[in-house]
Amino acid sequence: MRFVLMTLLSLGLAGCASAPVYNPMQVAVQQELLLNENGLKALQNGMTVDQVHQIMGQQLVIGYKYQAPDYKPLTIPNPYKSETVKGSGYLIEYYVQAVIQPDGAVHDNELMPLVFKDGKLVGRGWPLAHSLEK
């Protein structure tokens, strides 16, 4: 009897030990890829637009594409887009900070707005950008 119970217990535990099949594409899609992270951390209020551009660079490499005989970088401009708030002295530049949905498009939730007033960085983030009249 004891042997039968031990066998059943062993079989039950063995069934719990099976690992799920690893799917690298599913794991990659579920991760958020951070971009421009070091540059954004280095920025401080009061910096000029030119100082920010020096730190952030003119383009961002987001991947590579095979083009015979080697790989070519896939880049997007830095900043990704910008706009001025007419008559206010405000400039908003939008930098890609993460790839949340790897779908080939850049969405607002993947951007970090940097707000400048009269050529100086005054803050960042969507609440500040939305508070300005456009």
How would the blueprint of this fold be written?
Blueprint lengths: L1 H15 L7 H7 L2 E2 L2 H6 L6 H8 L2 E9 L2 E8 L3 E5 L4 E7 L1 E2 L11 E7 L2 E5 L1 H6 L3
Antiparallel strand pairs: 1-6, 2-3, 4-5, 5-7, 7-8
> Helices and strands, in N-to-C order?
HHEHHEEEEEEEH
The largest beta-sheet arranges its strands as 4-5-7-8
How does the major sheet shape up? 4 strands, antiparallel
Please give the count of helices: 5
Describe this structure in words.
The strands form three sheets. A four-stranded antiparallel β-sheet has the order 4-5-7-8. It has a two-stranded antiparallel ribbon with strand order 1-6. A hairpin with a 2-residue loop joins strand 2 and strand 3. The chain has one domain (30-131): Beta-lactamase Inhibitory Protein, Chain:B, domain 1 (2-Layer Sandwich). It contains five helices and eight strands, in the order ααβααβββββββα. The longest helix has 15 residues, at 2-16. It has 134 residues and is α+β, with helices and mostly antiparallel strands. The model is unreliable at 27-31 (pLDDT under 50).
Key phrases:
5 helices; single chain; two-stranded antiparallel ribbon; globular; 134 residues; 34% strand; 8 strands; Beta-lactamase Inhibitory Protein, Chain:B, domain 1; four-stranded antiparallel sheet; alpha+beta; 31% helix
Describe this structure in a few short sentences.
With 134 residues, the protein is of the alpha+beta class. The chain has 5 helices and 8 strands, in the order ααβααβββββββα. The strands form 3 sheets. Strands 4-5-7-8 form a 4-stranded antiparallel beta sheet. Strands 1-6 form a two-stranded antiparallel sheet.
